[in-house]
Amino acid sequence: MTAAVMPSSGQSLVDKIWAQHVIRDLGDGWALIHIDRHILHDLSGPPALGKVQAAGRRVSMPGLTFATPDHAVSSRPGRTAASFPPGGRLIEALRDLTAHAGIRLFDLDEDGQGIVHVTAPELAISLPGLTVICGDSHTCTHGGLGALAFGVGTSESAHALATQTLRMQKPRRMRVLVEGRLGAHVTAKDLALHLMRRLGSAAGVGHTVEYAGSAVRALGVEARLTLCNLSVEMGARSGLIAPDDTVFGWLAGRDYAPKGGDFDQAVAVWRDLASDEDAVFDREAVFDAAEVAPTISWGTSPDQSIAIDEAVPDPDRAPATSREGMRAALDYMGLEAGRPLIGTPVDWVFVGSCANARIEDLRAAAAIARTGRVAPGVTAWVVPGSVRVKRAAEAEGLDRVFREAGFAWREPGCAMCVAANGEQVPPGARSVSTSNRNFVGRQGPRARTHLASPATAAAAALAGRIVDVRTHS
Ligand SMILES: CC(C)[C@H](C(=O)O)[C@@H](O)C(=O)O
Ligand code: SF4
């Protein structure tokens, strides 16, 4: 008798993708898995490629690896590689090493350059059901297309360059169900911060988080990428969403997507990429979308977030174990417990990063920017996530909207998200930022960061203080 086809019931989405990539079961939950796509950026690419060279190895499948500089590139209009010399040296290294290995580099200002987690999805380098890695923790973003995507360290990246495989432990399965409808001005970013706040920064450790439910299905692709982007901030190395017609329609015609009949065939396969009805999860959490308000961080970790109209929490009323951390966060942020965040004066606004610098994000920020001018004393930047996003925004006239309102319109890259390109929020200044990390010193020494959606950030720029975007007129 021929071997029966294994019934697929009881499998979750991550089980399916995992099973399709196992080359060899190594026992104890470990396996050697195939890596479909490998992305390199200016900070993590050169050390990994250098390691391969130093070991006397070759990049085994250069056609599956793509590179672009993003972290240490200046966002100044008219920038070149020389605008920020330390970053320029990294770009040089990335150019040399990728040319030597035969890897496609999307160089500075070329169509295809930008933050890796914006460019790889928009070029359809990342696709549903693929394993995608990058030496960067926010690689989980690509799960918005239904890929199993996760950050790796330098040794893993070098191993994958040399072999196109990785030795991995199968992640546990977590599902976050969000049912119902998000309210007006409540975005995927608000939802992500809300989930962080309720679940905590360690809820996803060891897991892949599948986001599901009617509120998630209703999200567009950009919003799905935002939601998955913050998975790592709750400790999960990867987060994903079952791909559907929204994703297939978005991918059709993109640079590296299959074309013509191949695309239809791919879609037929991608339709199976969903958790079975009787799929088993190691952990599950259910949320009501209607309960999510515009959400903003008050502290120094993304889970230290509140609804925009709530008061800053009081450490004395918190569990004893979190009091000290909360006091330190309040002190760093220059905030008082029990006071509303609304009305807090703002010095900087940053609309950018792999969390929120796609076209939909810029449209949302521009819709607010149209209604006024940046308040005196506020410096407000818009840094598009990629050259393609920048050009699309310019074609719609969004750059003009921003400039006329007093925002600076910059060149694509990570910029002030991590300040690795020397662009920093000044010490002690308060910033409302659409990025994903508000850690101590993240946007510069002593910089105070509030994470929020593009609309909330733009509204803060106009008001010069933190405001509720729902009542901003
Ligand atoms: C510098 C890079 C490796 C880092 C990451 O891994 O995420 C950065 O992108 C970040 O967001 O902190
Ligand atoms: S935009 Fe920020 S979070 Fe994203 S990869 Fe760059 S530094 Fe990391």
From TrEMBL:
Please state the pathway this protein functions in, per its UniProt record.
Answer: Amino-acid biosynthesis; L-leucine biosynthesis; L-leucine from 3-methyl-2-oxobutanoate: step 2/4
Q: Name one Pfam family in it.
A: Aconitase
The chemistry this enzyme catalyses reads: (2R,3S)-3-isopropylmalate = (2S)-2-isopropylmalate
Q: Note whether Iron-sulfur occurs among the keywords.
A: yes
- The catalytic activity of this protein is classed by the Enzyme Commission as 4.2.1.33
The cofactors it requires, by name, are:
[4Fe-4S] cluster
**Keyword check for Amino-acid biosynthesis:** yes
Checking Gene3D superfamilies in the record gives: Aconitase, domain 3
Key words, A-Z: 4Fe-4S, Amino-acid biosynthesis, Branched-chain amino acid biosynthesis, Iron, Iron-sulfur, Isomerase, Leucine biosynthesis, Lyase, Metal-binding, Plasmid
**One of the protein's GO biological processes:** L-leucine biosynthetic process
Task: Note the subunit structure.
Answer: Heterodimer of LeuC and LeuD.
Query: Which PANTHER family does this one have?
Result: 3-ISOPROPYLMALATE DEHYDRATASE (PTHR43822:SF9), HOMOACONITASE, MITOCHONDRIAL-RELATED (PTHR43822)
Instruction: Outline what the protein does.
Output: Catalyzes the isomerization between 2-isopropylmalate and 3-isopropylmalate, via the formation of 2-isopropylmaleate.
Q: State the name under which the record lists this protein.
A: 3-isopropylmalate dehydratase
